[in-house]
């Protein structure tokens, strides 16, 4: 079957950075599904994994951590899906990714695709949707009940990116007042479209901008870019007994001492944790994806797809990686059709 992989970790301008390959189509066993891939999305994690390093793969490494497709076969222990089911998922960093015609994935991290969305629209949601949901509700501890979030405020740093776009929608759905950051006219318009109540510029002083809006503190902060750069401002803005969550590593150690007097929390969100460590609650990602699917079908949230390329082959994936690496992507980029 067709796939796109790599043997060497190279700059994306190098044609050998991602290459078209042919690999064996394997049968599923245990709780694995064999999925016929219809659409994929490219995320910053793809570019980070592919980034130049002194390493060579004897067998091709396949990236791709957003898939929408159709179940072709199921393993003998599967109970959640049957052949013919339309699905979407992000997969795991510890196995081969979904940039192939068929893909093996554990059913516990797969959800039923929203019926109201195309495969391309659905492929834009899994990684960012799980990250946003886990980050806000499982890690930061925000209630999913809108009645409990009245008069509570969240600051979402980098609101126009993939995670920020869906996080803003989920925050509004659960009753929070959303302050999102953006720095360009087009990204400001985008975050407003996602439902942000206020927009501030992350390239300027965050503390003064938020306080000019009338908020001395915010109850929650979800940082999706440049954790180290914004850390001091986050410590100042977080409310007493509030929580800061981030998905981005810092380029220098973070001092937690400023949070002590506020009894404030600091938590990490890494979407691959549950599958990587096969935690007892690994099936939580199946449940989250089904919740996202239900919300999309009810039109309570919408896809964040903004750009589509086709077909799926190495040249287009190199183009997609190049676009994502520029760091100013609004929404999500999807490829479809092998």
From TrEMBL:
Segments forming domain Enoyl reductase (ER): 13-335
Gene3D superfamilies in UniProt: Medium-chain alcohol dehydrogenases, catalytic domain (3.90.180.10), NAD(P)-binding Rossmann-like Domain (3.40.50.720)
InterPro entries from the UniProt entry: ADH-like_C, ADH-like_N, ADH_Zn_typ-1, ER, GroES-like_sf, NAD(P)-bd_dom_sf, Quin_OxRdtase/zeta-crystal_CS, Zinc-ADH_QOR/CCCR
UniProt superkingdom: Bacteria
Subcellular location: Cytoplasm
Main localization (coarse): cytoplasm
UniProt keyword list: Acetylation, Cytoplasm, Metal-binding, NADP, Oxidoreductase, RNA-binding, Zinc
Family: Belongs to the zinc-containing alcohol dehydrogenase family. Quinone oxidoreductase subfamily.
Record's subunit section: Homotetramer.
Name of the protein described by the UniProt record: Zinc-type alcohol dehydrogenase-like protein
Organism placement in taxonomy: Bacteria, Bacillati, Bacillota, Bacilli, Bacillales
């Amino acid at each position: 079957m067709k796939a796109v992989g790599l043997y060497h970790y190279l700059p994306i301008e190098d044609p050998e950075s991602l290459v078209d390959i042919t690999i064996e189509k394997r049968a599923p066993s245990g709780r694995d599904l064999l999925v016929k891939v219809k659409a994929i999305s490219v995320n910053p994690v793809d570019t980070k994994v592919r980034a130049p390093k002194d390493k060579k793969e004897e067998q091709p490494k396949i990236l791709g951590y957003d898939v929408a497709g159709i179940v072709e076969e199921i393993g003998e222990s599967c109970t959640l899906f049957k052949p013919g089911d339309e699905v979407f998922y992000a997969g795991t960093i510890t196995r081969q990714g979904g940039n192939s015609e068929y893909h093996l994935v554990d059913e516990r991290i797969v959800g039923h695709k929203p019926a109201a969305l195309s495969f391309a629209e659905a492929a834009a949601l899994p990684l960012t949707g799980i990250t946003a949901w886990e980050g806000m509700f499982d890690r930061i501890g925000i209630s999913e009940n809108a009645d409990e979030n009245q008069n509570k405020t969240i600051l979402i740093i980098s609101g126009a990116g993939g995670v920020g776009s869906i996080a803003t929608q989920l925050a509004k759905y659960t009753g929070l007042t959303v302050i999102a950051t953006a720095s360009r006219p087009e990204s400001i318009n985008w975050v407003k479209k996602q439902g942000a109540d206020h927009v501030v510029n992350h390239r300027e002083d965050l503390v003064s901008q938020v306080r000019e809006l009338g908020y001395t503190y915010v109850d929650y902060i979800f940082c999706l870019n440049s954790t180290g750069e914004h850390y001091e401002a986050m410590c100042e803005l977080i409310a007493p007994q509030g929580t800061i969550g981030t998905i981005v590593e810092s380029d220098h150690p973070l001092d937690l001492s400023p949070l002590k007097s506020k009894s404030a929390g600091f938590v990490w969100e890494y979407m691959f944790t549950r599958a990587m460590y096969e935690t007892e609650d690994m099936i939580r990602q199946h449940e989250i994806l089904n919740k996202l699917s239900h919300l999309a079908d009810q039109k309570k949230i919408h896809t964040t797809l903004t750009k589509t390329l086709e077909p799926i082959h190495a040249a287009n994936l190199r183009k997609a990686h190049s676009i994502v690496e520029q760091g100013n992507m609004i929404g999500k980029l999807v490829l479809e059709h092998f």
